[in-house]
Amino acid sequence: MEGRSRPTVWILGDQLNRGVASLAGREPRDCRVLVVESDAKLRSKRWHIQRLHLVLSAMEHFAAELEEDGFEVDYRRAPTMGDGLRAHVEEFHVEDVVAMEPMSWDGRGMLRRLGVETIRNNQFLCHYDEFAEWADSRASFKMEDFYRWQRTRLDLLMDPEGPAGGRWNFDHENREPPPLDGRAWPEVSRFELDAIDRELLARLPGYWGAEPDGTWPVTREQALVRLDEFIATGLHTFGPHEDAMLAAEWKLAHSGLSSSLNLGLLHPSEVVEAAEAAYRRGDASINSAEGFIRQVIGWREYVWGVYWLWMPDYRRANSLGAHRRVPPAFTGAASTEMTCVASVIGRVHDHGYAHHIERLMVLGNLALTAGVDPPAMTEWMWASFVDGAEWVMLPNVIGMALHADGGTMATKPYASGGAYINRMSDFCSRCRYDPTKRTGPVACPYTTLYWDFLARHETTFKSNHRMAPQLAGLRRLKDLAAVRARADEVLAALDAGAL
Ligand code: SF4
User: Fold this and answer.
1) Best of 421, 439, 494 for a ligand 1 pocket test (most atoms within 8 Å of beta carbon)
2) For ligand 1, atom 2: residue with the closest CA
């Protein structure tokens, strides 16, 4: 009967760390642990196989580690999360179930409906309640202001006289075009698949993408290896080339840590502290260390905060009235001759990953200018990337990439023609399309659609002073009718998977 009074700690699939608030400080004798694998979640999207494998493998490995540490773990496969909990409660006669606050709006609703007690989430450096207080205290809440507030209160990269290096922001040094000297980029370890992985893959047929090859850490130990590798070999070159894209390089000097952070295998504090320590040792330049720390404590925590601030209405935002389906060239239903898209989608297929500029300026930019439906694009990206989660994807897709929130998050849309991609990559030199042309059969689809997008939404943007130069450029075009006619052809070909 002693076991009947022990509480159950329910560990959700993105809370895989002994330090999560619901588990921290507990001993095996104090509680029982529940992990639920929901069949409904498995079938809820067209998941990339590496994404699905990563989450399930990490859950199983974490459960096994807890068992090794002496915890009694009920790892349960069930039709839904609720079914799993109910079966657990019935079998073990459980009276109290606690969980850490979940990472999603729907997850929070589910725990409330099921009567699960929740403990404040400690997986971010700024809890969403703190973010809401910060946002409430100001008329506008730009990411840059939030980032400086985080840097100061967390005492990261701060010297007695102010920000390390004398400035808050080294973006100017961090927007270099890609080096075209054929240099080698940092390699990442591939972790050997084990019996858990093999059993998983045997029961997960029919999902898309290349099979897992051990690229993505499934345990904390592996995630720490990836962190050490990045600090030793990637961080010092990260900054200058963080916006660059190369056809033959899937990751360049990006860290590959986002999936580990988003599953809880790593905590953001240890990641940014390691980056700062490298800078203090002289192993990384200030622009690389600052650029990386900005991504983690600035952007990552900012999108987490705005997600909770603006949900659930944010899900439905579609201020530009975009309703096109996700292009077949993205989903793998068609190939494409656009080298930029083919290269980036190739990486998504092979690794379930593309870096942030590829997501924003290749995939997002085309979806924005073509008018792809925001919820559909969010859903596709969420399912296709190893680091996908609703809290990440909604602000990044709705707010940043598709400007579907009417400028609440980004003051102007991230729309550009082929010129930006040509400057920041080697894609265009290998492409049948010409980034400088907006009409004719070899016109770059990005360039054509950029002008068509501005023309379609001219009325919407004319009161936005940040769009004035673009709209002035639009009004100077002598061939707008021909551009718009070509745009109709491009959109039809995009829909047909014939671009
Ligand atoms: Fe992409 Fe246009 Fe460049 Fe081709 S020319 S790679 S479609 S941006």
Assistant:
1) 421
2) 444
> How far is the C-alpha of 407 from the C-alpha of 247, rounded, in Å?
32
pLDDT at res. 91: 94
pLDDT at 138: 84
Query: Does the CB atom of residue 362 touch ligand 1 within 6 A?
Result: no
Name the residue type at position 111.
L
The residue nearest atom 1 of ligand 1, judged by CA position, is 340
Between 214 and 4, name the one with better pLDDT: 214
**Among the ranges given (4-8, 144-148, 345-349), the one the predictor scored with the smallest mean pLDDT:** 4-8
Say what percent of the chain tops pLDDT 90. 90
The pairing of beta strand 158-159 with beta strand 117-119:
unpaired
pLDDT band of residue 451 (cuts 50, 70, 90) is very high
Predicted TM-score (pTM) of the model is 0.94
Confirm or reject: Cβ of 391 under 6 Å from ligand 1. no
Q: Is 340 in the pocket of ligand 1 (CB under 6 A)?
A: yes
Ligand 1 atom with the smallest distance to the CA of 433 is: 5
CA–CA separation, 435 and 309 (whole Å): 39
% the chain with pLDDT above 70 = 99
Q: Is 435 in the pocket of ligand 1 (CB under 6 A)?
A: yes
1 pLDDT more than 50: no
> 101-140: per-residue pLDDT in tens?
999 999 999 999 999 999 999 999 999 999 999 998 887 7
444 lines ligand 1 (CB under 6 A): yes
Contacts 24+ apart (CB under 8 A), 133-139: 134/305, 135/305, 135/309
Closest protein CA for atom 8 of ligand 1: 418
Q: Is the pLDDT of residue 289 over 60?
A: yes
How many Å lie between the centroid of ligand 1 and the Cα of residue 388?
A: 26
